[in-house]
Amino acid sequence: MGSYIQKQHLEDRLTVSVLENLSGKTGNELVRLLDEIIARAEAFVNNYASIRYCIPLPADPLITEWTLRIAEYELYKRGPGNNVPEKIRESYKECITFLNDLAQGKFRLVSDPPKPSGNGNSFTAETPAGKTTLFSADAMKGF
Predict the structure, then answer these.
(1) How do the domains of the chain map onto residue ranges?
(2) Residue-wise pLDDT tens for the chain (143 aa)?
(3) What span, in angstroms and rounded, lies between the C-alpha atoms of 39 and 10?
(4) Cα first-last separation, the chain
(5) Contact between 99 and 46 (Cβ < 8 Å)
(6) Secondary structure element (H or E) that encloses residue 97, with its range
(7) Cβ contacts of residue 48 below 8 Å, gap of 6+?
């Protein structure tokens, strides 16, 4: 069972008959193959994401889509004649571009914490001449 997609996602996207045609497998053999493809697709996403995120990533429709694109591409590569349709190839390439951008910090997930606003930054204030510091190291001895 995958973290980002399930077999049902692939069945909904491609239909069982297309999955069987692409893989040349049915029944339990097809289930095992889909489990392997899902695991590889998720590992692929995790390898890119792990550069900036703790994995597995939280649920996110974009991560689901990217994982589906990778799994779909892997299925079509296995298909008869090893011919991946151009739209599947382009979708896969676009996915890889996004994953590269994610790894390099050029693209952020919705689950990212917001960038610091600059409010609350530390600074050093000078003590005016003739004034004592209330919380200096000497004043805080014994606490």
Answers:
(1) 7-104
(2) 579 999 999 999 999 999 999 999 999 999 999 999 999 999 999 999 999 888 998 889 999 999 999 999 999 998 877 789 999 999 999 999 999 999 998 988 877 755 555 555 555 556 666 666 666 677 667 76
(3) 13
(4) 55
(5) no
(6) helix 86-104
(7) 99, 100, 102, 103
Residue 136 is classified by DSSP as -
Read off the amino acid at residue 103: A
Calculated CA dihedral for residues 21, 25, 27, 32, nearest 10 degrees: -120
Q: CA of 111: how far to CAs of 104, 115, 121, 137, 142, in Å?
A: 16, 12, 23, 41, 44
Nearest residue to 22 via CA among 66, 64, 72, 65: 72
